[in-house]
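On to our target:
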Amino acid sequence: DAVAQAVSRWRADELEAAVVARNGCAAAMRGIDAWRQHPQGRGVAEEPLLHRDAGPAAARPHWRVRRQRPLQGLRVLDLTRILAGPVATRFLAGYGADVLRIDPPGWEEPGTVPEVVLGKRCARLDLKSAEGLATLERLLGGADVLIHGYRADALARLGLDAERRRQLNPTLVDVSLDAYGWSGPWQARRGFDSLVQMSTGIAEAGMRAKGANRPVPLPCQALDHATGYLMAVAAIRGLTERLATGAGGSTRASLARSAQLLITHGGMLEGGPALAPESEADWSAAIEETSWGPARRVKPPMRIEGTPESWDYPASALGSSEAAWRDAAR
């Protein structure tokens, strides 16, 4: 009640700006038309769904693609949080990739970690220390794929801008995520799925569709999940091109651009069909021995015919593995 009373004395856009100016995350609710007219909305609308840049041709890698485990032997360095990036790397792990997730000391994600660390090894590094940064650079040098959700200026402050990453590993497939897009006045703004739904008009459209008096976001973090699968596709496309030419490359995705795609094709925002009720068919039969005890997992939302998903590791706690590749002599 005290927060609501204090907030009521502000204009929404002014409060949003004040929170952001103090390095916080906030989003005023805007309608779809207001977002289209906003400078950031106009900038995002002109961006491609995925920004893709190929690197120079190099020596072709020695990588044997096996139908049952097509990504086996490939190393994926995971510098992501919460949902979008971890969904991408979980998918890659399901087809054989060695995914190593890196988190800072003390970082936890209560409630989400068991869902997204399936098939991964999870280590901790203090990137503000010389030793931690040197270890990360060694890992980058041996990686096939990097997937990261750090803002561009944050990695640059660590001395790991795009040019430095390419120097460390010329054939790296580099896939990155941003909240509000890669152009426009908000391109470096902090954000996450729920805030992007507020900014882009999705929560306001839900409110109108439901006849509610407060924001109604989507019933799940749909922008995160959708963008995560787009990032996985980008990584696989980058690997395919590297297999053919030897060249690395980079791809950039954003939650705001995924939101734009949903808005353009999203009749669901105006009151589409109800979600189907949960059924026994939604669940996997296997019991997974996670770090938090035995569990059943919801089945993956997609499959590749003839190439089943399977994971080498159950969901494990953050920091439970060493910050090293499995085959250090590769």
Q: What stands out?
A: The two ends are 59 Å apart (CA to CA). Strands lie at 51-54, 75-79, 98-103, 120-124, 145-148, 173-178, 249-254, 288-290, 293-295.
